[in-house]
């Protein structure tokens, strides 16, 4: 129509192409007179940490859903109480006029 953006012409990229890796640089190890000890591992695999991440996301989603439901319940209750108050006020005002 009036304002239609123009996309730049780009060469299509084939999905079947394999990316080329940059040349690897091999450095000679540094030799020193210090006595280095190999780094100690934590002794536990990484997979339980991934499982905890998934369960944490699930827990956050469940808590979010519960809090949203509670908020909706409070809002519905507030509207119901306000409507009941208006009806009672109307009934009391009409009783005083008679």
TrEMBL record:
Annotated keywords: Membrane, Transmembrane, Transmembrane helix
Positions of transmembrane segments: 56-88
Annotated spans, Disordered: 1-26
Statement: the UniProt record of this protein carries the keyword Transmembrane: yes
Protein name: SpdD protein
Phylogenetic lineage: Bacteria, Bacillati, Actinomycetota, Actinomycetes, Kitasatosporales
């Amino acid at each position: 129509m009036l304002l239609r953006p123009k996309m730049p012409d780009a060469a299509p990229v084939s999905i079947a192409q394999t990316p080329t890796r940059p040349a690897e640089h091999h450095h000679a190890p540094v030799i020193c007179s210090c006595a280095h000890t190999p780094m100690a591992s934590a002794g536990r695999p990484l997979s339980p940490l991934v499982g905890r991440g998934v369960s944490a996301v699930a827990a956050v989603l469940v808590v979010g859903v519960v809090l949203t439901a509670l908020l909706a319940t409070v809002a519905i209750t507030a509207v119901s109480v306000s409507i009941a108050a208006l009806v009672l006020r109307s009934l009391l005002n009409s009783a005083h006029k008679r």
